[in-house]
Amino acid sequence: MRSNRLEAFSDGVLAIIITVMVLGLAVPDGVTLESLVKTSGLGLLTYLLSFIYIGIYWSNHHHLFQLRPMVDGGVLWANLHLLFWLSLYPFTTAWLAKTEVALVPTVVYGANLLCAAIAYMILQTVIVKRPGGGRLRDALGHDVKGRLSPVLYALGIGLAFVVPWLGLVPFVAVAVIWLVPDRRIERYIRSHPDDEA
Fold first, then answer.
1. What SS3 class is residue 68?
2. How many CB atoms lie within 10 A of CB 99?
């Protein structure tokens, strides 16, 4: 089957995730900038971080399926596995903000990020193992960012046990690394316009 239904469903789920996250933000108690910072400051920062993550997954997911217009049941289930972990972002983000970056919520947030990264790697692997998957393997190359991200998440989880706020540093670092546009798939498509999917 063609991947357009999978992509449309995934886009809808990601849009709902963002909507749920923004609806979870606390409305300031007063009308001053100080009340905004007091009531919603940390919530806005954690929302921003999770919003960036959802945006990164959305962008990379789009590129991924440019090389894979046909999908089967294995790809569908691997994609649902990824969406499951991403759908937990509103919960773990809200808990992180509400507890002002306490130990357990920071660790759970990091575990959520780590599980989503692993799920994305599984999705890539499932696609690569399908007929025609060599195109994705060739486009990704060594995938240094993809391999480094889980290591940084694990580091953040470990650092959270030292100082919970310190655990956020690797989480932010991964987001910054991925904010630099990943052009590998676009370059591959430009240099192999006649390849069949």
1. coil
2. 14
Residue 26 carries which DSSP code? P
Phi then psi dihedrals of residue 70, to 5 deg: -115, 140
Give the pTM: 0.92
**Tokens 């963002």 belong to which residue?**
18
Question: What totals of helices (H) and strands (E) does the chain contain, helices first?
Answer: 9, 0
Q: What Å distances lie between residue 184 and 54, 60, 64, 136, 137, CA to CA?
A: 20, 10, 10, 10, 11
Q: Read off the pLDDT of residues 46-75 as tens digits, 9 standing for 90 and up.
A: 999 999 999 999 999 998 888 877 899 999
Give the Cα separation of 130 and 192 in Å (integer). 19
Residues lower than pLDDT 50 in the chain? 196-197
| pLDDT at res. 148 | 96
Task: Centre a 10 Å sphere on the Cβ of residue 75 and count the other Cβ atoms it contains.
Answer: 21
